């Protein structure tokens, strides 16, 4: 049985939820699959030998990724190059289908440019707008981003843009990459 570890960075919990859905979809294909927050991974370490493959995902915050995401890639560059087979980026601009293409998504292009680990396989997943859970300043800033991109600006809006069936399909795609090894 092959084994896959999903590493993730999530600020508000949605990327963690996507990781869990992905984990279940990979596990449904007769693989052992677990998930781990990179904060825990950085503190406690990872037994890389335990895993045949690793998938890494992070949410976009203000046009980029949290600095711990880049630090993690820098510190684990070799292990990620050896084991990590895919990277997924979660952002709300990706609610527009064309923004789920690498050539149209500047956040993923930014990751490719700045990360010490350059993933060969990438996936862009639409995230969640959750104004009530965000602080005043974040809420205003994101409403501004949404206004500029014709998105929702109602401060009470909670909209999950994630295509969960597509996340399941991504899980199957990950398993197909394992078979290529
Ligand atoms: C402070 C903050 C800044 C964000 N900035 C962006 C952004 O620049 N572009 C974008 O597409 N989405 C942006 N988002 C949306 C998040 O990527 C989206 O809500 C994602 O689902 C959050 O995942 P999480 O719950 O795992 O943190 C931002 C969200 C927050 C809270």
UniProtKB/TrEMBL annotation:
Which is one Gene Ontology cellular component term of this protein? plasma membrane
Q: Return the InterPro entries for the record.
A: Flavodoxin/NO_synth (IPR008254), Flavodoxin_dom (IPR026816), Flavoprotein-like_sf (IPR029039), HemG (IPR044264), Protoporphyrinogen_IX_DH (IPR052200)
Q: How is the cofactor bound?
A: Binds 1 FMN non-covalently per subunit.
Stretches assigned to the Flavodoxin-like domain: 4-181
Q: Which Gene3D superfamilies match?
A: 3.40.50.360
Pfam hit, one: Flavodoxin_5
What Gene Ontology molecular-function terms does this entry list?
A: FMN binding; menaquinone-dependent protoporphyrinogen oxidase activity; oxygen-dependent protoporphyrinogen oxidase activity
Nucleotide-binding listed as a keyword: yes
For the keyword Oxidoreductase, the answer is: yes
SUPFAM superfamilies per UniProt: Flavoproteins
Q: How does it sit in the membrane?
A: Peripheral membrane protein
Q: What EC number(s) has UniProt assigned to this enzyme?
A: 1.3.5.3
Q: Which locations, inside or outside the cell, does it occupy? A: Cell membrane
Pathway noted in the entry: Porphyrin-containing compound metabolism; protoporphyrin-IX biosynthesis; protoporphyrin-IX from protoporphyrinogen-IX: step 1/1
Function noted in UniProt: Catalyzes the 6-electron oxidation of protoporphyrinogen IX to form protoporphyrin IX; under anaerobic conditions uses menaquinone as an electron acceptor, under aerobic conditions uses ubiquinone as an electron acceptor.
Protein known as: Protoporphyrinogen IX dehydrogenase [quinone]
What's the source species' lineage? Bacteria, Pseudomonadati, Pseudomonadota, Gammaproteobacteria, Alteromonadales
In the UniProt record, the gene name given for this protein reads: hemG
């Amino acid at each position: 049985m092959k084994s896959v570890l999903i590493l993730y960075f999530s600020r508000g919990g949605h990327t963690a939820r996507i990781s869990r859905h992905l984990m279940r979809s990979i596990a449904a294909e007769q693989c052992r699959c677990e998930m781990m927050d990179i904060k825990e991974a950085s503190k406690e370490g990872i037994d890389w030998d335990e895993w045949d493959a690793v998938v890494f995902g992070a949410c976009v915050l203000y046009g980029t990724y949290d600095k711990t995401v880049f630090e993690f890639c820098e510190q684990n560059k070799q292990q990620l190059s050896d084991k990590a087979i895919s990277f997924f980026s979660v952002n709300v601009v990706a609610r527009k289908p064309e923004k789920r293409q690498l050539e149209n998504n500047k956040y993923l292009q930014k990751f490719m440019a700045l990360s010490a680990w350059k993933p060969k396989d990438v996936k862009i997943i639409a995230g969640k707008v959750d104004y009530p859970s965000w602080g005043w300043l974040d809420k205003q800033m994101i409403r501004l981003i949404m206004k500029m991109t014709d998105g929702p600006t109602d401060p009470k809006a909670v909209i999950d843009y994630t295509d969960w069936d597509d996340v399941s399909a991504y899980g199957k795609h990950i398993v197909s990459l394992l078979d290529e090894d």
